[in-house]
Design brief:
CATH topology of the largest domain: Elongation Factor Tu (Ef-tu), domain 3
Strand content: 35-45%
Shape: globular
Radius of gyration: 18 Å
Mean pLDDT: 87
Order of helices and strands: EEEEEEEEEEEEEEE
Number of helices: 0
Structural class: mainly beta
Oligomer: single chain
CATH architecture of the largest domain: Beta Barrel
Helix content: under 10%
Strand order of the largest sheet: 6-7-10-9-8-11
Number of strands: 15
Largest sheet: 6 strands, antiparallel
CATH class of the largest domain: Mainly Beta
Length: 200
């Protein structure tokens, strides 16, 4: 398996999913910095969260049923019934928030649904994410979200300032992403993810 993501500025790439059930795990990470990039800093981040969308009322997978999700302008605030454990720049996938639809309807009628980064942690039971300033102001009873926690990968992939290739030692990881924290110049910073075949 070969997958690739690129960034041309400070930012965080989408998650690249991995086959965490593969034996041996065998994941190589190559980050290539274009010669026109004069200064860069980046970290490869990993997640061990399971991504399994299940209707909220059925309580499956790693889904969380929040107490509420409300939107004021571009800020959506999530209140949870217990400690959410999320940090800024963790990811959440919100679905079934349309108050007029049944579970798993995927009507797309609300801007509260989608994949988002946590923008701020208000308290142990509340956090925010950024949405567009339109659509419904509150989620319905069937809303769920999947929390995707992140952490920095092994030392070789943390705080790097030049192109590199390293094995992903963090196992079992379900996904990886590139976080560019410093960038000067032009051209891409590209992460190639190579996962070898299963042994026979």
């Amino acid at each position: 398996m070969f997958q690739q993501v690129s960034l041309t500025a400070i930012g965080i790439s989408p998650w690249v999913p991995l086959d965490y059930r593969q034996r041996p795990f065998n994941v190589g990470i190559q980050v290539q910095v274009a010669s026109t990039v004069t200064a860069v800093g980046f970290t490869v981040e990993v997640s061990t969260s399971r991504w399994s969308k299940t209707p909220a009322g059925l309580g499956g997978g790693d889904n969380v049923i929040p107490t509420s999700i409300t939107r004021v302008t571009t800020v959506a605030t999530v209140v949870t019934p217990f400690n959410h454990g999320l940090n800024v720049n963790d990811t959440i996938i919100v679905f079934d928030s349309d108050p007029t639809s049944s579970p798993n309807a995927d009507s797309g009628a609300t801007t509260l649904d989608g994949t988002f980064l946590v923008a701020s942690v208000v308290s142990a039971t509340s956090f925010t994410y950024t949405v567009v300033d339109s659509g419904t102001g509150a989620a319905g009873n069937f809303v769920s979200y999947i929390p995707i926690f992140h952490q920095a990968a092994s030392t070789a992939l943390t705080g790097a300032t030049a192109s590199l290739f390293a094995a992903l030692a963090d196992q079992p990881a379900t996904a990886v992403r590139l976080n560019v924290t410093a960038y000067t110049g032009t051209g891409p910073v590209t992460m190639n993810v190579i996962q070898g075949p299963s042994s026979s």
